[in-house]
Design goal:
By secondary structure, the protein is mainly beta. The chain contains 1 helix and 10 strands. The chain is globular.
């Protein structure tokens, strides 16, 4: 019985849930999207124009964004796609971001 429990626990070893997502994604350059995700699913950043914040839920390498608070500034020449994020999945140093329909709306590279 102890051997079985040890084998089950060993199967859970490795990267803690959410560790692949925690950190800053995107660029801090002007008019570029970026997002910082904390261990508890709290996120904040910008779509390149408007400030974004909220709390999502993390499951492994995927975050489901909760309701997103946003400023409502008008910015010319900025693609504000990040404000439409429903989920994001991290694979290596790239996060692919999806909208409510499951379509890819953009990617962010990990910056730390």
């Amino acid at each position: 019985m102890v051997l079985l429990a040890g084998a089950l626990l060993a199967g859970c070893a490795g990267t803690p849930s959410g560790a692949a997502l925690v950190g800053t994604w995107g660029s801090t350059a002007s008019k570029q999207p970026n997002l910082t995700i904390e261990n508890d699913g709290t996120f904040s950043g910008t779509d390149g124009c408007n400030r974004l914040s909220g709390k999502g839920s993390i499951d492994g390498d995927t975050i489901t964004f909760g309701p997103m608070a946003s400023t409502m500034m008008a910015c010319e020449g900025v693609d504000e796609w990040l404000g439409k994020a429903a989920t994001g999945t991290a694979k290596g140093s790239t996060m692919t971001v999806y909208d409510d329909s499951g379509s890819t709306i953009g990617t962010l590279e990990k910056s730390n």
